[in-house]
């Protein structure tokens, strides 16, 4: 996986993200914000482990209620039964993990920033989960 | 895994992307170029509230962000509404509000006689018509190397349109003048914010310096029609020369205030700062736009022989004085002709340079200078949120002359 910003219709699709390991994500997260904003490459490529059922449950819980404010208030994500319409539909956007991570850290436009609301681990989990399920409707 | 790896987004400059496409495994170079210039139907559908846009002219980043493809910008100054970009901070309100536009209410505060007025009443107070460049703060985000969050706009989050409405000054006069001590005009959007969210976190409320009271208009008409919901109808605040975000849509409250809005979008959002820094109120706000221009034709390839290189130029709050064009990556420049009509200091100006170029590949770009002598920058230093890339280096297009 790599950069998503070719052109909107060529955004990297989410299928590869199934293999993103949260552990690799965490390694990335250890870097500075600045580093994360740079084009990232290696971590996600070699990733192999899928999210466990338990991790998926935790991610869904954060997205639908615990994130404060919950993503579900503003975003649609069928796999988590999130139906918000205030912001763009994540099922339609199909972001990769890096896109989600950047959105959580930066809070683009009027989206809240989550850097002070969630732990790095939680953000990585959400990013991996959204990248894996967005557009599919399958948890 | 067969995923595209592209290391320098800005090679995609303009509509082209041909150079990049050939290095992308599993992606047809030609198909990609066609997608970028808009000869292919977009794969993401237009959102309902903007379903009347011309699909082949638009890049759909998200439901809230639709970009005009570069070569669709013509030379007659005004951008038709059906190809004008859309950038909504939040989902627009119900379309019922434009069905009965005259009944829309706006609260005026921080004046001698505060009160609420309907659009119908505002229409009795005065009318002004002002062409302005509407440009999203994030226009050109896709030309930076750092992956700032948000839509990766190229050049198409901008357009010149004509607004009609009441001058804010006329309203203020009718309400007995501005209250003492006011330093800002603070405008609140009418988006519906769900329960359970701290309003300041998502409220679209922007403050601009009070000096703008003499240029702001409250517009109910755009390009000869009632302002569509997608562009802020029934009533939109137009702050000429200021970035799009300040031009608050579905405005429901206009207040003269001593301090800037408490909303995050004002306090920490839309602040220019180095990459990696958080937003803070002491950083420059995205207010006045910079001098900027870009070529809109040719953008990918063109037959040899006479070529009319054309594009658009604007100076934010100042009129454009001159535009130069380079066909050799900025090594040499030629004076372009500014096309009439001149729609005023806040509009953009089309320019043209007739050239004859032998077959080959050219890096074509333009450089504008405003009436104050400000010259369009060569390159734009990265800023955290990827606001307004206006450097002529990456706004260049790689054109093959056949």
Task: Please provide a brief summary of the model.
The complex is a heterodimer of chains A (139) and B (402). With 139 residues, chain A is an all-alpha fold.
Features:
heterodimer; A: 139 residues; mainly alpha; Cytochrome Bc1 Complex, Chain D, domain 2; 2 domains; 7 helices; 43% helix; B: 402 residues; mainly beta; 5-stranded mixed sheet; globular
Description:
- The complex is a heterodimer of chains A (139) and B (402).
- Chain A has 139 residues and is mainly alpha-helical.
- In chain A, a hairpin with a 4-residue loop joins strand 1 (76-77) and strand 2.
- Chain A is globular.
- Chain A has a two-stranded antiparallel ribbon with strand order 1-2.
- Chain A has 2 domains: 8-50; 51-133, Cytochrome Bc1 Complex, Chain D, domain 2.
- Chain A has helices at residues 22-29, 33-37, 42-46, 53-66, 90-93, 97-106, 120-133, and strands spanning 76-77, 82-83.
- By secondary structure, chain B is mainly beta.
- Chain B has a domain at 87-267: Alpha-Beta Complex (Sulfite Oxidase, Chain A, domain 2), CATH 3.90.420.
- Chain B has 7 helices and 22 strands.
- Chain B has helices at residues 18-21, 29-37, 96-99, 119-122, 168-174, 199-202, 264-267, and strands at residues 58-62, 65-68, 86-87, 105-109, 115-118, 128-135, 158-167, 184-189, 205-209, 217-222, 225-226, 236-238, 251-257, 292-297, 301-302, 305-314, 320-326, 334-335, 337-338, 349-357, 360-370, 397-401.
- Chain B has a 5-stranded mixed β-sheet with strand order 5-4-13-8-9. In chain B, strands 6, 7, 10, 11 and 12 form a 5-stranded antiparallel β-sheet that branches. A 5-stranded mixed β-sheet of chain B has the order 15-22-21-17-18, with no helix packed on it.
- In chain B, strand 10 (217-222) and strand 11 (225-226) form a beta hairpin.
- The radius of gyration of chain B is 21 Å and the shape is globular.
- Classes of the chains: A mainly alpha (139), B mainly beta (402).
């Amino acid at each position: 996986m790599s950069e998503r910003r070719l052109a909107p219709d060529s955004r990297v699709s989410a299928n590869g993200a199934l293999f993103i390991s949260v552990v690799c994500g965490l390694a990335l997260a250890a870097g500075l914000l600045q580093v994360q904003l740079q084009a990232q490459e290696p971590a996600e490529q070699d990733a192999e482990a899928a999210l466990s059922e338990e991790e998926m449950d935790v991610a869904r819980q954060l997205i639908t209620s615990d994130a404060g404010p919950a993503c579900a208030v503003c975003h649609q994500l069928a796999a988590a039964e999130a139906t918000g319409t205030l912001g763009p539909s994540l099922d339609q956007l199909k972001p990769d993990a890096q896109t989600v991570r950047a959105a959580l850290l930066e809070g683009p436009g009027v989206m809240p920033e989550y850097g002070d609301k969630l732990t790095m681990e939680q953000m990585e989990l959400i990013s991996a989960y959204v990248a894996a399920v967005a557009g599919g409707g399958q948890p | 895994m067969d995923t595209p790896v592209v290391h320098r987004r800005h090679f995609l400059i303009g509509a082209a992307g041909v150079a990049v496409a050939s290095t992308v495994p599993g992606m047809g170079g030609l198909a990609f170029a066609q997608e970028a210039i808009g000869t292919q139907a977009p794969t993401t559908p237009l959102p309902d509230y903007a379903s009347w846009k011309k699909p082949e002219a638009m890049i759909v980043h998200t439901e809230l962000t639709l970009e005009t493809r570069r070569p669709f910008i013509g030379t007659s100054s005004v951008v038709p509404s059906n190809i004008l970009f859309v950038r909504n901070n939040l989902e627009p309100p119900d379309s019922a509000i434009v069905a009965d536009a005259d009944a829309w209410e706006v609260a005026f505060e921080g004046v001698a006689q505060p009160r609420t007025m309907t659009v119908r009443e505002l229409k009795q107070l005065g009318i002004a018509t002002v062409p302005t460049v509407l440009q999203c703060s994030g226009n050109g985000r896709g030309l930076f190397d750092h992956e700032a969050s948000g839509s990766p706009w190229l050049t198409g989050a901008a357009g010149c349109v004509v607004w009609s409405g009441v001058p804010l000054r006329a309203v203020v006069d009718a309400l007995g003048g501005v209250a003492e001590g006011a330093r800002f005009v603070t405008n609140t959007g009418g988006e519906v914010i769900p329960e359970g969210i701290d309003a300041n976190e998502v409220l679209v409320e922007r403050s601009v310096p009070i000096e703008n009271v003499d240029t702001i208009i409250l517009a109910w008409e755009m390009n000869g029609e009632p302002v569509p919901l997608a562009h802020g109808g029934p009533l939109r605040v137009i702050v000429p020369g200021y970035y799009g975000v300040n031009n608050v849509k579905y405005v429901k409250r206009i207040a003269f205030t001593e301090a800037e809005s408490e909303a995050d979008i004002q306090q920490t959002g839309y602040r220019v700062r180095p990459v990696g820094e958080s937003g803070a109120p002491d950083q420059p706000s995205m207010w006045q736009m910079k001098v900027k221009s870009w070529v809109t034709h040719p953008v990918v390839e063109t037959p040899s022989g006479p070529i009319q290189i054309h594009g658009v130029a604007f100076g934010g709050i100042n009129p454009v004085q001159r535009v130069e064009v380079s066909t050799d990556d900025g090594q040499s420049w030629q004076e372009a002709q500014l096309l009439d009509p001149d729609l005023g200091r806040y509009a953009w100006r089309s320019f043209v340079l007739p050239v004859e170029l032998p077959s080959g590949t050219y890096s074509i770009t333009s450089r504008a200078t405003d009436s104050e002598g400000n010259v369009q920058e060569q390159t734009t230093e990265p800023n955290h949120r990827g606001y307004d890339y206006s450097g002529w280096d990456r706004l260049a297009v790689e054109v093959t002359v056949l």
